Structures are given as C-alpha cells and as structure tokens.
Protein 1
Amino acid sequence: MTDRAKILIVDDDPDFTESLACFLEARGHRVMRASDSDRGVELARSCRPEAVVMDVMMRERTEGFFAIQEIRRIPELADVPVFAVSAIYTAEPTFTIAPEAGWLAHDEFFRKPVDLDELALRIEARIADRREQEEARLP
Amino acid sequence: MDESRPETVVVIDDDRAIRLSCEKILVRSGYEVACFENGALGLEAVADRKPALVLVDLKMPGISGLEVIARVREIDPTAVVIVITGYASIESAVDAMKAGAYDFLPKPFSPDELRLVVGRGLEKRRLVQEARRGELERELLKRRFVTFVSHQLKSPLVAVHQYLEVLKRLGDTDEVRPKREMWLDRCLERTDELTSIIEDWLTLASLEQASFSRTREVVDVRSTIRKLVEGYEGTAAERSVALNADLPASPCPVSGDPTCLAVLFDNLIVNAIRYNRPGGSVTVRAECRPGEVVVSVADTGIGIPESCLPLLFDEFFRVGGRGEGSSGTGLGLPISRRIATEHGGVIDVQSVEGSGSTFTVRLPRHELEGAPDVAGADTALEEMSLP
C-alpha cells in the first residue's frame, strides 16, 4: 500500500464526499474536501494534493472540467492524477486518456457509485508512479 | 417566427397578365408578392427572400417549371410550391407532384380559386412547422428529463449506496463506528428526498394530463390560506420566521379544484419559509378585486437573482446555492404555475436579491349567480376549515 497520501475530493454532494473520504482515511490517507470547484482549486493550490477526485457534473454543468483545467495550470500539479467521477454517463466511458491528450492527460473516469476498491487501488497506483518519477528526477 | 409579418409569395410566370392578376389578388389578401417572368430570376428571388409559397408556371421558356420546382425544394424544403399551367393534364400534374409541388392550379382560374389554393398551401406549411416545433419541444423536454433523472434522482441513490457500502465493509472499524448513527440518519433523509422528488414528479405528470380540471367547486381562498398558514406555524416558528395571513372580511371565491388550489399556495408558502432568514417574515395576502382574486406571498428572504427569474417556473430549475441544505425538488413552482394556468390564472414573481421575493397569483373570481348558493358553499368551506 502507498504511504499516507494527500487526496483532494471535490464534490457538491457532502454525503458522497463523507463516505468516500472515510473509506480513504481508513486506508491511511489524508483527505481534504471541497464542496465546489472554486474551493477545490483554492485547496489544491494551498495543499498540493497528490491525487484529486473531481465530480464533473456539479451545480454548473461541466464545472468540474474547468476546475481540472484550473488545477493543471498550477505548475506543481500539472501532472497530478485526476479521477473524474459522475453519476451522469450515457455510455461506459472507460477512458484512461492518452498522455498526448492535453489537459485531460492524467485523468481516469469512474462512475458513481464508485467501486471503492478499484478507485482506491488506482489512486494509490498512480500516486506511487508519480512519486517514483519524481525521485528519478532528483539529482 | 414573427407572426405579424406578412407571408411572402413569389410568382414565376412568363405571362404578364397572369403575373399582374396574381399580384393584385394576393396583395389584397395581405401577402407580400414578388413576380418574375422566368425561372432564373424567380430562383434568385427564392434564395434571397425565402418566400413561404411559390407559384410556378409549368410551361416557360428557359428553365422549365419542373426544374424550378426541384430547385426551390433544394433551396428551402419548407417552401410550398404550387404549379400553374394552361396545359392541365394528368401527366404534367403527376410530374409536378413528383418534383415536389404541393398543389395544382389550372389556367384559367378565378381570384377565389387562387386565394383558396394559396391559403391551403400556407395552412399546410404552418401545420408542418407547428409539428416540427412540437417535436423540438418534446425532444428538449426528453433531454431535460434525462439530465433530471441522472442528477436529481441518482444523486441521493448514489449517496445512500456509498454510505451503505462503507458501513457494510468498515462499520466495525474505529474510523466509522462513531459515524454510524449519523450516516444512517443521512441515508434516511436522502431516501425521503428521493420520495418527495418522485411524488412531485407524479403530481406534475398528473397535472400534465389535466385530469383534475373536471373537479370544479366554489372555493373561498381565504379558508384555504387560513388552513395552510395554521399548518405551517410550527415550521415557521422553528426557523424563527413570522408567518402572517392578511385576509379580507368578505369571501374570495374562485372556481376550481380545492386540493389543487391548496397545493398551489402550499408550494409558495413552503418556499417563502424555506428561503427565508431567522427573524424574517412571510405574509400571505388575499384580495378580492373586480373580476379577479389576487393572492400574494411575500417573504423577507434571500431573494432571487435577476438572471434566474426567467427560468424560475421551469421544470427542474433550482436557484443555485440557496440556503444550507435546501431540499427543494425543483418542481414546486412548475406545479404551482401549472395549477394557476389550469384555473385560468397567472403567477408572477417580483424579487430583490438579498431582501426578499413576492409571488403573486391572479385567479378569475367566481361570479356569483345565485347569492344563496354561493353563500352556502362558502359557509360549508368555512366550517371545513375549523379545527
């Protein structure tokens, strides 16, 4: 298991955030919560999470996508793994987007209700990868 | 489309006498008319002016009538094409219809015949356009419904599912144990939310079918309001909101379904309490004016942003960020509007963001035909309203 990681959840449904946060905390992670995208971007900027879970259909439709873009503009977070979640989907978008896909490069999509194990495993795997890459970059 | 603008008719005929008489007759009937002596000029005008209807002579030098028909249909498929010809024969008529003409006018024709054929063509066009608009509206509603189902119905379900799953798996851990009671309460609240959304949705659906409109009684809205205000006194007090009824001494008779009318005012009063502030007030006022009964519900609440006002009565619309834990279903106001409309009335809102909103319902006043009759109905309602 990945060592204690900082994870940010941005979702306008406090109940979804509460249950997911507790699940991740029980796995030893530190979780920050934001109930809208402005607060989410603010928290990302000040706390530098290692992974972000973002509801992409909040009060304003697609608000979450703009928040992801904003977060990516923060230089330290340009490659932070983002897990887009939504209860609204038409087909099964099992997309892990190719690295060349611009600002969505590091996103994965999970539909709500999320498969808790799967999401936790993916978050931990991505965080471990990123930590490894960072270490390799150190002189 | 602007209904008041006259419809444009283009006439393409090489016979000057026909052009002149068509113009004279059609202008007198209120159409805007443009006449051309050959297909090339006529088609240019069709592309330019987008007429509602085109009259085409089948036998013309240059571009043939049949070709003109086909090109007009290409330029604007909604334009109605009517064929004029001196060689009225089955074959030419069939060919013209195949090319996309809607009707046929054999030469010579009387002014009445021309008016009849043109009127019939334009009527058909209107019907097609209306059908298309209706289709579009249904399509939009369907799409809106999909979003509504996904968001409003799925959100509570997702929340409950997620709680239950974490409870099932980690219910006995130190992290989750202290939260169990709270989470279970939240699950119950969210399922209640789901129930009220579904109930409101069903109410709205039954109103769409207007199944209630057959129930007509004389209702004194004073007693409806009195009952509602009594019922909500507790809720208002809990939120430190003063709830007042300002009712006249004489009856406010309206003809309608008493249950629906109660729902109409109920929604307005609930909103006024819900979107208020501690120490605020709600005033429900009824007035009997010549020809109408006016009921207003005024609150000193948080108000509604001006940009939201036009959408306020739309299904599924909710003003974002109104109050903590506001549990509205987004269907209350559409239901109220629907009921007001079904009763021949209107509902309107005036709001200043930050200082409050006033919803006003105007309903046709029930005109008293036999005074004893209505007095009787009124007394009956008064009696019913007594606790």
Protein 2
Amino acid sequence: MSTILVLVRHDGGTVQKSSLELLTLARRLGDPAAVVHGDVSDALVDALGRHGATTVYAVTPLTPPAYPPVAEALAVAELAARTAPAAVLITSGPLGTEVAARVAVRLDAGIVTDAVQVRAEAGGPVVTQSVFAGTWLVEGRVRRGTPIITVRPNAVTPEPVATPVRPVVERVDLEDPASPAVPRVVARRPKATTGRPELTEATVVVAGGRGVGSAEGFRLIERLADVLGGAVGASRAATDLTWCPHELQIGQTGKTVAPQLYVAGGISGAIQHRAGMQGSRTIVAINKDPKAPIFQIADFGVVGDLHVVLPALIGEIENRRG
Amino acid sequence: MKIAVLIKYVPEATAAWRFAEDHTLDRDSVDGRLSELDEYAVEQAVRLVEAGSATEISYLTMGPARAVDAVRKALAMGGDRAVHVLDDALHGSDAVGTASVLAAALRRMEFDLVIFGMASTDAEMSVLPVMVADLLRLPAVANAVTLRVDGSALTAERETDDAIEEVVAPLPALVSVTDRSGEARYPSFKGIVAAKKKPVTTWSLSDLEIAPERVGTAGAATEVLAVRPSPPREAGTVIVDEGDAAVRLAEFLAANKLL
Ligand SMILES: Cc1cc2nc3c(=O)[nH]c(=O)nc-3n(C[C@H](O)[C@H](O)[C@H](O)COP(=O)(O)OP(=O)(O)OC[C@H]3O[C@@H](n4cnc5c(N)ncnc54)[C@H](O)[C@@H]3O)c2cc1C
Ligand SMILES: Nc1ncnc2c1ncn2[C@@H]1O[C@H](COP(=O)(O)O)[C@@H](O)[C@H]1O
C-alpha cells in the first residue's frame, strides 16, 4: 500500500486531536506515516500506533533551531522526495498552510487547501473544498507531483484502529541546505489560557457579536459557554471592539469551526462570518432583528434581546440539571 | 527603501459568484474590485512612505485586463507605479503557477520589502506569500499585525493561537499583513486624479520568459472535477421572545441531545 505522509503536532506525550483526524483520514487513503518534530516519547509512539501509523519519522531539530514552518517544510519535502507518498496531509491553519505552501513549491506539486473531505480514487485522492464563503463545493485532484493537501480540523472524527500497530520509528537528521535567510523570533508573549476547549476542536461554540453591547456583556457569552462546556467565539466586530481576544474571531479572516452546536448571540450573520461557521451541525441564533441574515441558516432562532434570553437560558439549563 | 505590493483583482464579495463552463470562477459576469484584504497591504506601504521609512511603492498584479481597476484604486491610495502581468495563457493558473509568475515578475523589479495581503478574498488559500518567498529565497513573515522597518531589517508582530511573537528579518524580506494591521484609507479626490497619470507597465509571459504551457489551465498541477452549490440548510424554527424563549430554546436543545 502507498504511504500517506502525515505532519503530526503534539505537545510532549499528547497528539493533537487534529493530527489524529489526519491519521484516521490517511488510513482510508493508504498507509499512514507520521512526521514528528521534537521529543518522540514512547507514549507518543503508542498513541500514533493506536491511530494506525505504521512508521514514525522522528525529525531531529536543527541546531541552531530554525524558524518552525521552514524547518517543518524542509523535513516534509525531504521525506516526500524519499518515500514518494501518495499524498501529504497537513492540518489547515496559518502554520500548516505555510508548511504546505513551501512543500508544494519545493516539490513543484499541486496543493489543495482546507479540504472538508478526501476520498480515495483510482487516479489519486479526490478532495472536496467548501469555497466562496461556503456557498459552493468543489471536487478536485492533484494531477502533477505528490498531492499536498491541507485538511480542515473537525472534517473527520478521529478513530483508533481495532488492533494497535507498533510503528517503526526512524530517526531523521536533516541538513539545512544553505538555507535562505529566515526570520528570527525575538520575543514571545504567551497569552493567558482560559481552561475552555480549543475553539476549532470544541463540540459546542457560543459566539458573541456587536449586539452583546460591551465587554461586560460578553461575560454572558462566556457563562453560557461554560454551562454548555463549550468554547467561546466572536464576530470580528466583537474582537475589533476588544471585548474579547482576537484569536476567538470566527470567519473568513478568523477561524473555521464546525461544532455540533453553534450559538450566535448578537451576530448579524455577515457572509464573512458565515464562512467560518455554517458547517456547524446545529445553529442557534439570538438576535433582536428578525431580518438578521443569521436566521436564514439557524435551526432555531429567537427574535429577542440576548440580555434577557441568555440569563434565562442559563437559569433554565441549570434548573433542568437540578 | 523600495516596496513592492502584491494586489489582486477579485469579484465583489456581495455578488452572486458563479463558475464558468471550465470550472474557473466566472470573473466576467460579476463586478470586480481591489481585494479588501490587499487594501491593508497598500495601507501599510503608504504608511511606511509617510513615516519616512520608505521612498517608493510599486504594485504588482496578475489578472485579466479589468484588473487595471484594482491597480488604479491602489495608486489612488498612494504609491508610484505598477506592473500588470497580462496574458490570455494565464487563465486557469493554479497557486504554484501563479507563484512562479509573480516571482518571475518580482525578479525584474527593484525592492527591499515585498508586502502581500493575508489571503485573496476569492481563492482564500493564503499560500502565495510564502510560495513566492520560497521561490525567491526571501525571509517571510506571514500574517503580521504590525510592521516597521529600520535600516536593514523588518520587525513584525504576529499573533499565534497562544502568543504574540515579535519577529525580525533582514532585508530584503517579504511580509503578509492581516486585516488587523490598520484600517485602509479611502482614496482622496486628489489621489484619484494623480493615479491616472502614474505609469502602469504591462508584461506578457514572453516578457517574463515563461513558457505558456507552464501556466494557465495547461500547466496547472491541480484540476477541478466537479462543482456544485452547497446543499442549502433546511429552514429552521424562528420564534419571537414572549417571555418563554429560554424555556423553548432549552427544550429544543434537550430534544436534540445538546444539553
Ligand atoms: C475582508 C473582510 C473579512 C472579514 N472577516 C470577518 C471574519 O472573519 N469574521 C467576522 O465575524 N466578520 C468578518 N468581517 C466583518 C463582517 O463583514 C461583519 O462586519 C461582522 O461579521 C459583523 O459582526 P456582528 O454580526 O457582530 O455585528 P453587526 O453586523 O453589527 O450585527 C450585530 C447584530 O446584533 C443584533 N443585536 C443588537 N443588540 C442586540 C441585543 N440586545 N440582543 C440581541 N441582538 C442584538 C443586531 O440586530 C445585529 O444583527 C470581514 C469583513 C471583511 C470586509
Ligand atoms: N493574481 C495575483 N496578482 C497579484 N497578487 C496576488 C495574486 N494572487 C494572490 N496575490 C497576493 O497573494 C495574497 C494571498 O493570496 P492567496 O494565496 O491566493 O490567498 C493576496 O492577498 C495578494 O497579495
């Protein structure tokens, strides 16, 4: 069976959920081989084996450390040249996209970004993309070089294999070929963590927009998210007003989410916002304007004031749970 | 210090976009404009000139004849001149093909800094900045929210999910800027008038010494097999709050096993 190279991200022993999704997808296309940077612990190798990776390429970090996307692209391009895989799978998002773009150029290979579905076909993987703010579906294929595919988080449900595999671990030492000048990270200010689920991975997302009215109003969105065990999201209007951090922005220039439940409070539903959330399974909207476009895609809409409806809803949910 | 800014002519976001027979975006049937996300790139360049950090701005676009509208809009915001890569053989180019053309054009231009938008509003791939950087072997900072140049280096801030990073790259360098880098100005009347006199040079593929079969539909490394509209979402229930909305909403969530 042909190899499918999967760029895996992890934090020490835990493999990121989006990487497990890629491994699950890779099994449908061929024989998954994981490309891993940094410390490869036994626990990590086991987790990869449970998700079907038959090979783990453990890439030794370059010294001095290289700019991450450039270092990852170097490794993936090199391994792709060496193993002639049937496809390379990378998670969509700023970092993944940068790696994939560089690999495509270096291999002079076709790239398809932000896949919502990938299926095996005789002529190579057929990739479905959701384009034009989610209004069209496009099926395409790479016809020159190794298919480089970035996959949207949540496009696949991660599933372990019935019988775990013992992956072959192979160390990969790379040489940095007279590398082009790269940027240097001179300062890094970590952001505060919230303890809430990661936005793109959450099964419930509660998002607030300009209609929330103020930074204090945004607390209501957070409270509902906490009651539902979900992540907090926002429209660009709400992040621009600094009612919440920018990384919570959903939409064309923010994140793409597809949770089981999406609750939009005080969001009008502009096309750029819908682009990032209309793949959600169930959409609930609370907006005082009955003509707000968000109602066109909502499964359940409430025309009303969120400052009244949300506290009542939180109370009602708490009551039901006793 | 000289800046090159990459701009794209795209269909208006609010128009109903269609596919043409050949599965490419039908650009003739809808109004086009300078991509809103590239206006941020233009804005940053103009600000660098105003701050005295840069002296000249040249724009570069690849696109159909009408793309000159986008060029004029950018020139009305500021800047000195533009290059328009125009060739019928470019129709249907994929990302790798487009990157090779833009890189070839940049090789013929003078610059210390290249500024891109974060993504085109039609293709939305966000790949061209780094692809071009890789081809030209330039250091690249993708998705910057602030940038400044001093003498020989570019300093940019970018937001990742868990941190704000400050990144320094030696010039010449390439950067893409997000829609959070600072609101783009409206062209002034004076700017619009001045833009009409600024030179726009047209280059064909032969000027760039690129074989036509390397680009366009013929040279594309990807192919579209089928397109179809997304299935419309089924119309849901909309209720007007009469004091009972929270209860009915909770019932809906419970019935759908979402509580
Ligand atoms: C290139 C580009 C990229 C963009 N990218 C994004 C993106 O990634 N994400 C994004 O979200 N936007 C994006 N936008 C912006 C987008 O066009 C909209 O401006 C934005 O989504 C509007 O946010 P909003 O719905 O919160 O605000 P508004 O459109 O102002 O809507 C506020 C809503 O709140 C309702 N409301 C007010 N008070 C109450 C109340 N008390 N109770 C209930 N409802 C109330 C109002 O009826 C209204 O419908 C982008 C725009 C451009 C040009
Ligand atoms: N045809 C083009 N001509 C000039 N610049 C372009 C073109 N296509 C893309 N770009 C630039 O590359 C950026 C990212 O585009 P994309 O990778 O298509 O999302 C855009 O914001 C533009 O700055």
